[in-house]
Design brief:
Largest interface: A-B, 42 and 49 residues
Distance between the termini of chain A: 14 Å
Number of strands of chain B: 13
Strand content of chain B: 5-15%
Shape of chain A: flat
Order of helices and strands of chain B: HEHEHEHHEEHHEHEEHHEHEEHHEHHEHH
CATH topology of chain A: MetI-like fold
Oligomer: heterodimer
Number of domains of chain B: 2
Largest sheet of chain B: 7 strands, mixed
CATH superfamily of chain A: MetI-like
Strand order of the largest sheet of chain A: 1-2
Chain lengths: 313, 448
């Protein structure tokens, strides 16, 4: 923010007319230097991101037969995927899952952050312990939860439920509870991550405001509502954007826990794409699906940025 | 952020450079391997087995024996069981396929549609007349031409807990209804005697992944006289909403919803899960292939279970027959050696190595060559049950341009009725038939 101000400072303006332009060679060298430094990263990006992405867009207009050669089919892939009821259901499941996981993680993450904020000795240990799910590989997490969700009466979670006088639940195995069960795993894994970001945000809230509100006689809840939450607004903005993108891209946990089943009740955009592309070899249709997902993410990100800009003004 | 990046003066030049790099990269990608023949080129052989497994060892022994006999170099690559298709797709994208792929017969349609395999002249295969007809049938495409040389065949039979059957005092089931009754006893009568209600009669991989549920259900559907599609003239029509099929699907739904004889979590279980359910003593009846015998002998004990043929239903006896083919992949630089490898693999010498009698690495379950007596080689009468099922009741998947799509679609349809007990089977099968119809049209296999 200060850089633009420095650039437009009057000092530079008064000096500029006196200085002659440097020779062309030096100017070229000056221009090339940053690009040379960027070149390795840009080349990798180009090769591993930009080109494959462009190819995916190309594939979405073709019937893909890698060995025999692709044929152009126009928008047929798009009308096929957008017209299929599976796609509509997958979008709905993806949005539901994204909303539930984002909301759950943020609420739980904030609660954890408020509980675990501070310098007290030993807190670092609790914080690290709670953070563990984030660093554990998703494949391991999913396998552990599959075991815990075992739908028989003697399954791990069902035993706990029976102590409380509930259950047994079918969890992943019933179309009624499968999506909620996956969302729960997502929240369990996402909340500690959100907690860490909240903790960083909390450190930035002015202590004096807490003291002032305490002097004014504000209750604990009111202090959180009027001091903490407004102080955390930028954190919320970042978390919501990140979580929305993460939510729409959900794949690993669904793939490993249910792979879209039972009865397609947990089919999300990416598991559907995976099935179309790799199990049914309709790579063109699958590519159309991913392009649609990309478009959605793009719109969402741009909208979020515009909103933030608006809010700043 | 208000930081403005200075507009680079060399922008246009950088863009030109980037474009040049992109073009070079694209050119690099599109250069496909030419199929110029070179008989000294070693063969690359892929098999769908995990590296380091006994099965991979047998495949290694097979390739070595082939090299020893013919002098043609061959290198075996054991590509993992779970991501074989993905790996093959990657090589397809590079237009550089392995020379030989040993893979499921069910993949044939897929490979043919994508143009990944070469046609095989059945009459031109040395020793081709020693290969059983049913195995050849599984190497035949929708157009009637052959696209592979058979290597291995198998049929499915029931593994039943012998000790449990003695405990509940039941006879060997003679019909599918008997079988369901036995499953009820296994579920309700605490056959393992631990005082807990923790056993299931029927072990079913009910997930839609790789179409497992259809794979399991085929045997039952056909035994009850139902079918997925029926041949009519030059093409096919859906048969899954015919009365016999619907009746079979209702029985399947009943196992999940009324008698509740399946293991918990069946509707999302894959075969890795169901193997564990059976061997850990949580389930009593498991329809599977003979390749599981060595594992269950070790984990459960040979004396604990028996192998019986699936009983006849309303439609007589039928059991899913499958197997593996040796596919001669397209674009190979050594087509002559490709065929020689396939001939060797199907020959008595190749088949005997594949039996894996010594090392337990069974890549040939039931030999496709009539000159090899698998049961005698193995000295295990239980294999005879599988052999008889294959010979007398074995049934290949319908010969459609791409069966695997039907397997996928139907498993989703069946999964729907077993996960939602209130679903009307008649209506669900009508819907499935409509989906079949659309897929038949798409594949150009719809009867006029």
């Amino acid at each position: 923010m200060t850089i633009t101000e420095a650039r437009t400072s009057p000092v530079r303006d008064t000096r500029r007319p006196r200085r002659t332009d440097p020779p062309l060679k030096m100017r070229l060298r000056g221009a090339a230097t940053p690009w040379l430094f960027l070149a390795p990263a840009l080349l990798l990006f180009l090769y591993f991101k930009i080109i494959p992405m462009a190819q995916a867009v190309g594939m979405s207009f073709e019937e893909v037969r890698p060995f025999l050669g692709n044929t152009y089919v126009g928008g047929a892939n798009y009308s096929e995927i957008a017209g299929s009821p599976d796609f509509g259901a997958a979008v709905w499941h993806t949005v539901l899952l994204a909303v539930a996981q984002t909301a759950g993680s943020i609420v739980l993450g904030l609660a954890l952050a408020l509980l675990l904020e501070g310098q007290t000795r030993g807190l670092w240990f609790v914080r690290s312990a709670i953070f563990l799910p984030v660093v554990t590989a998703m494949a391991v997490v999913a396998e552990v939860w599959r075991v815990m969700y075992y739908p028989a009466a003697d399954g791990a979670l069902n035993s706990v439920l029976s102590v409380l006088g509930m259950g047994p639940s079918e969890f992943l195995n019933s179309p009624d509870s499968s999506l909620a069960s996956i969302a729960f795993v997502g929240i369990w894994r996402g909340a500690p991550y959100d907690m860490m970001i909240f903790l960083a945000g909390l450190a930035g809230v002015d202590r004096a405001l807490y003291e002032a509100s305490a002097v004014d006689g504000a209750s604990r809840f009111r202090r959180i509502w009027y001091v903490t939450l407004p102080g955390l607004r930028p954190v919320f903005a970042i978390l919501l954007t990140l979580a929305a993108i993460r939510g729409l891209r959900v794949f690993t946990e669904v793939f490993l826990l249910t792979n879209g089943g039972p009865d397609g009740s947990t089919e999300v955009l990416l598991t559907l794409t995976y099935k179309l592309g790799l199990e049914r070899n309709e790579l063109g249709v699958a590519a159309a699906g991913t392009v649609l997902l990309f478009a959605m993410l793009l719109v969402l990100t741009v909208a979020a940025r515009l909103r933030r800009k608006e809010a700043r003004r | 952020m208000l930081i403005h990046l200075r507009k680079p003066r060399g922008g246009r030049r950088a863009a030109a450079l980037a474009a040049a790099v992109a073009m070079a990269a694209a050119a690099g990608c599109s250069s496909a391997s030419s199929a110029k023949q070179d008989e000294s080129k070693p063969l690359e052989v892929w098999i769908r087995q995990d590296a380091g497994s006994p099965a991979a060892e047998s495949a290694e022994a097979l390739t070595k024996a082939f090299t020893k006999k013919t002098g043609i170099k061959a290198k075996l690559v054991a590509v993992g069981v779970t991501d074989f298709e993905t790996k093959l797709q990657q090589r397809t994208a590079q237009k550089n396929l392995p020379d030989i792929v040993i893979n499921d017969t069910g993949q044939l349609g897929n490979l043919v549609t994508q143009g990944l395999v070469r046609e095989v002249d059945r009459k031109g295969v040395v020793g081709g007349n020693e290969i059983v007809d049913r195995a050849w049938e599984a190497a035949q495409g929708f157009d009637g031409k052959y696209y592979a040389v058979p290597f291995n065949s198998q049929a499915f039979a029931l593994l039943v807990r012998k000790d449990w059957r003695a405990k509940v005092g039941a006879e060997i089931p003679k019909t599918w209804n008997d079988l369901t009754k036995l499953a009820v006893k296994f579920t309700k009568d605490d056959p393992d005697g631990n005082g807990k209600d923790d056993t299931a009669g029927m072990v079913i991989p009910g997930t839609t992944t790789r179409g497992y549920l259809t794979w399991w259900f085929s045997t039952m559907l056909w035994s009850e006289g139902g079918d997925f599609v029926t041949k009519k003239g030059d093409g096919y029509v859906p048969a899954i909403n015919e009365p016999a099929s619907v009746k079979a699907v209702k029985k399947l739904q009943g196992m999940f919803c009324d008698s509740k004889v399946v293991q918990p979590g069946a509707s999302t279980a894959d075969s890795a899960t169901t193997h564990t359910v059976f061997e850990s003593g949580k389930g009593g009846i498991y329809l599977t292939g003979p390749y599981m015998l060595p594992r269950f002998d070790a984990s459960l004990g040979k004396d604990k279970y028996e192998v019986i043929a699936a009983p006849p239903g309303a439609g007589g006896r039928a059991a899913l027959a499958e197997g593996e083919n040796v596919y001669l992949m397209a674009g190979s630089a050594n087509e002559k050696s490709q065929q020689k490898f396939a001939e060797f693999a199907a020959s008595p010498a190749g088949q005997k190595i594949g039996l894996g009698v010594d090392n337990g690495g069974i890549i040939v379950r039931l030999p496709v060559n009539i000159k090899v007596d698998g049961t005698a080689e193995r000295r295990d009468p239980r294999w005879e049950v599988f052999q008889k099922v294959y010979d007398n009741a074995g049934r290949n998947a319908p010969n459609l341009p791409n069966w695997s799509n039907f397997r996928q679609i139907s498993s989703e349809g069946f999964n729907g009725v077993v996960s939602d007990c209130s679903r009307d089977v008649d209506q669900a099968m009508d819907e499935l038939a409509d989906e079949f119809d659309a897929e038949l049209k798409k594949q150009g296999a719809k009867a006029e």
